[in-house]
Structure formats: C-alpha cells, structure tokens
Design brief:
There is one protein chain. By secondary structure, the protein is an alpha+beta fold. The protein has helices spanning 13-24, 32-43, 95-109, 123-128; strands at residues 4-7, 50-56, 59-67, 80-86, 114-119, 132-139, 142-150. A four-stranded antiparallel sheet has the order 1-2-3-4, with helices on both faces. Strands 5-7-6 form a three-stranded antiparallel sheet. Helix 1 packs across helix 2. The protein is globular. The two termini are 28 Å apart.
C-alpha cells in the first residue's frame, strides 16, 4: 500500500514533531512544544514554504519540509529541502522518495529552479534521486555534506 502525500495539517503536528525530535534533535534541548510551534508556523505561512506529510491508513508516518532557511545554516543559500523523516517501521518502501518528490514539485510550482539540503547519513539516498554533493564540511564537530538539485 502506497502512502498518501498531503500538505501537513494541524492534526499531524504532534506526531510529526515527535518523529523529528527523535531523529534530529535528541540531546539538543529542543522541546516538543518548540518543534510543534515551528511546524505550525510553516503550515500557517505564506504558501511559499510548505510542510508535507505521508499518511498510511490515515496515520502520519513521515514528513518533509520546504523552507527558506535551514537551521543554523553554514551557507547563505536558499531554499532548502529539510527534515525528511520516515517512521523506521516504514523505511525502504518509497515513502521518503514520495515526500522528496512532493517537495520538489512544490518548489517548482513556486518558481524555484534549485534546491539545497544538508545530510551525511542519507547522502547515497539523495544521490540516487539526482542530488549532487557540492561540499563536505563539519558542523558542530559532525561531518556534513551540502547537496543541490536543479529542478
């Protein structure tokens, strides 16, 4: 069964924020309330930035964001594909690819011709989908790679 990819709604915010905290913010001090507020800001925004959710059987199982600015940017570039997360029980089933494609389609629809992202662990995933590594660097003592994709 393939997931449904939709624009994130209020009913998704807490579940997605919990996934994001476990994947991206463990040990950082970021709270569930802070992440929920950030997601709410995106879904109530101007229509340029966007948050997408993957649903299976009505339940949110993943998310991906399209944002002007990345958290603690090391580069003065915009816009960004950010926060791609899929519940570990649903990985390897095309959910991440579907979310990524939704963000790319949205970006193209608002006139963007190039997207950027940061990753390290998922570099091969993104490369397989047409993203190109531009630069490797360290951020907070951790290895990172800046990637881009022309749309």
């Amino acid at each position: 069964m393939l997931p449904i990819i939709e624009t994130m709604a209020e009913r998704d915010v807490e579940a997605i924020a919990r996934l994001r905290l476990a994947a991206f913010f463990e040990g950082t001090g970021r709270t569930l309330e802070e992440d929920m507020a950030g997601l709410r800001g995106l879904i109530a925004g101007d229509g340029f930035e966007a948050a997408f959710v993957a649903r299976l059987g009505g339940s949110p199982i993943g998310s991906c964001l399209f944002v002007r600015n990345e958290i603690d940017p090391a580069h003065d570039l915009t816009p960004w594909l950010a926060g791609l997360i899929v519940d570990e029980n649903y990985r390897g089933r095309g959910v991440g690819t579907a979310l990524l494609k939704a963000v790319e389609a949205h970006a193209a629809s608002v006139g963007v011709d190039k997207l950027y992202l940061y990753t390290w662990e998922a570099r091969r995933f993104y490369e397989a989908l047409g993203w190109t590594a531009v630069e490797t660097f360290e951020q907070g003592g951790e290895p990172m790679v800046l990637m881009e994709r022309s749309l």
